[in-house]
């Protein structure tokens, strides 16, 4: 499903003294099957923006088109419910949404809400528990007995159980240890590659952006200030600093090399692989001074 | 919930806002006591004027006072109707079975109505002009004497301030969890009463869990910094008694004197 934002504006508590414009004149497109990262400083409107993706917020002005469905300020709540089935939304610290007695029961909550029979829902729950690599011995345990990383997997499985076409991730690795983060991120990468899920990732971690995303949107103060491929966005470190963003580790390293005289013909590399490749080429070719 | 606890305080630079929270708290309670001294139209008029003057001095729009009364409208109507139909004494205008309207009944109904409106206006004035934390501090100060009879005043005050402090946090959390469950296909707005009651479970359980976790974290954080309730604590927000506070107290004393003189 392609997602298009068209002159989207959103104001919290409009018409009151507390009115706050979180987004204004936001226009960009998320292609089907893409892996889009939305980055920006705290308070830049990222969370507000992605809440439009499954109708938790309705635009104050402008439109959001998701697949065939166009959402404006006048869209009814019933139509929004249909949308929620297609767009899975993994909140920040999603383990806060767990409530059932057992892990499997919690995972089958969404399918049951969307009208699957108990038998089908159980089948889906088992599939998803396997997909997020939850060991079978915790399936019948209370989700509150699990470790932080496992709780997060249960919560994510609970979202995947809706069989969404678009997966929205709001800082999915916040508070996890490095290994847990890597495992979760490669799970999403697998879903993206194997099932063609469109992924929208909100993150502060530029390494994740460099490693996984194929499209980056930079927000600042509620407007889009950058929209392009990671290589384009990360090509200008000064611009990133001006917008309070960092560089991926590899790119920062490459940038220092560049300042010492290395020339990267295809722009600054983003991943270790690219860097190694380019360095090897250069050393062989003897381009460096 | 928002209307009840939070959205109440309205910032303005007025005489009433600047009064000490202790004075305002004490006088609000005192007002409820003296209103029971009223028993004729002169006395009610006197307190009516007092209330009106206080309201005007607060520079807050009358609409907000109406918002304070509105939730209680049914209670007021119920009490007034009860007084109107079931009082006895005085001239009987109308009678039907056990219902009767008498001159005394009408009089009582009007007085009860006035009493309600005046009390609500005065208490609303307190919450509109005093930030919640100042009210908590004021309560603590006023409850001090109870320490003599072993009432855990510091602990009560601490509980009160913590509760007030966490209302916004809890509301954010509620919104977050509601959104998360909405994304999993829960519809909080539609469906039968039974369905909607059932849908509170996925909301309340996560809320309880996170509240307990938060409470535990807070307790650990306080103990780690050596918190002890009790007499040796100093305060960041100092309460200062001004001359105006004394003046207002004296005004109320004068009004009390007048009341006693005017009542039947």
From TrEMBL, chain B:
rRNA-binding among keywords: no
CDD domains membership: EcfT
Coiled-coil positions: none
GO cellular component: plasma membrane
Record key words, sorted: Cell membrane, Membrane, Transmembrane, Transmembrane helix, Transport
InterPro entries registered for this protein in UniProt: ABC/ECF_trnsptr_transmembrane (IPR003339), EcfT (IPR024919)
Lineage: superkingdom: Bacteria
Membrane topology term: Multi-pass membrane protein
Gene Ontology terms for molecular function: transmembrane transporter activity
TM ranges: 21-37, 72-96, 108-128, 149-167, 246-262
Record-linked Pfam families: CbiQ
Subcellular localization, as worded in the UniProt entry: Cell membrane
Function comment: Transmembrane (T) component of an energy-coupling factor (ECF) ABC-transporter complex. Unlike classic ABC transporters this ECF transporter provides the energy necessary to transport a number of different substrates.
Subunit and interaction comment: Forms a stable energy-coupling factor (ECF) transporter complex composed of 2 membrane-embedded substrate-binding proteins (S component), 2 ATP-binding proteins (A component) and 2 transmembrane proteins (T component).
Family statement: Belongs to the energy-coupling factor EcfT family.
Protein name (record): Energy-coupling factor transporter transmembrane protein EcfT
């Amino acid at each position: 499903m392609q997602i298009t934002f068209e002159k989207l504006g959103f104001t919290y508590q409009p018409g009151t003294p507390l009115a706050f414009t979180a987004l204004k004149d936001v226009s960009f497109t998320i292609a089907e099957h893409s892996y889009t990262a939305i980055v920006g400083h705290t308070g830049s409107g990222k969370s507000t923006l992605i809440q439009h993706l499954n109708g938790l917020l309705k635009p104050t002005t402008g439109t959001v088109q998701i697949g065939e469905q166009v959402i404006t300020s006048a869209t009814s709540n019933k139509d929004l419910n249909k949308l929620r089935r297609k767009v899975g939304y993994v909140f920040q610290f999603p383990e806060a949404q767990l409530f059932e007695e057992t892990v499997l029961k919690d995972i089958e909550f969404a399918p049951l809400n969307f009208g699957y029979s108990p038998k089908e829902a159980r089948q889906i729950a088992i599939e998803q528990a396997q997909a997020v690599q939850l060991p079978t011995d915790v399936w019948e345990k209370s989700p509150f007995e699990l470790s932080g990383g496992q709780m997060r997997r249960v919560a994510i499985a609970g979202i995947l159980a809706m069989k969404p076409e678009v997966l929205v991730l709001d800082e999915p690795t916040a508070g996890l240890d490095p290994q847990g983060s890597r495992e979760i991120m490669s799970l999403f990468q697998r879903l993206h590659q194997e099932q063609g899920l469109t992924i929208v990732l909100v993150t502060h971690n530029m390494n994740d952006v460099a490693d996984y995303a194929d499209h980056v949107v930079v927000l600042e103060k509620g407007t889009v200030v950058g929209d392009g491929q990671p290589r384009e966005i990360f090509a200008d470190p000064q611009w990133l600093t001006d917008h309070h963003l960092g560089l991926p580790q590899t790119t920062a390293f490459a940038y220092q090399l560049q300042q010492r005289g290395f020339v990267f013909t295809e722009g600054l590399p983003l991943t270790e692989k690219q860097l190694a490749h380019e360095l090897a080429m250069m050393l062989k070719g003897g381009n460096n001074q | 919930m928002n209307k009840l606890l939070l959205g109440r305080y309205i910032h303005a630079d007025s005489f009433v806002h600047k009064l000490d929270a202790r004075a305002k708290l004490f006088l609000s309670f005192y007002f409820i006591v003296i209103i029971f001294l009223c028993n004729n139209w002169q006395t009610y008029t006197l307190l009516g004027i007092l209330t009106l003057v206080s309201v005007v001095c607060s520079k807050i729009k009358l609409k907000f006072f109406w918002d304070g009364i509105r939730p209680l409208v049914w209670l007021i109507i119920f009490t007034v109707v009860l007084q109107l139909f079931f009082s006895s004494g005085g001239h009987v205008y109308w009678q039907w079975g056990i219902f009767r309207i008498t001159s005394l009944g009408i009089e009582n109904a009007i007085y009860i109505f006035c009493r309600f409106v005046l009390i609500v206006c005065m208490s609303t004035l307190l919450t509109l002009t005093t930030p919640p934390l100042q009210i908590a501090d004021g309560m603590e100060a006023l409850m001090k004497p109870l320490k003599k009879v072993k009432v855990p005043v510091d602990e009560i005050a601490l509980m009160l301030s913590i509760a007030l402090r966490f209302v916004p946090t809890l509301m954010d959390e509620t919104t977050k969890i509601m959104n998360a469950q909405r994304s999993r296909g829960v519809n909080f707005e539609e469906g039968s009463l039974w369905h909607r009651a059932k849908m509170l479970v996925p909301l309340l359980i996560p809320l309880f869990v996170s509240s307990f976790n938060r409470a535990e974290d807070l307790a650990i954080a306080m103990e780690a910094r050596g918190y002890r309730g009790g007499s040796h604590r100093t305060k960041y927000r100092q309460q200062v008694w001004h001359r105006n506070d004394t003046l207002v107290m004296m005004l109320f004393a004068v009004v009390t004197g007048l009341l006693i003189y005017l009542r039947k």
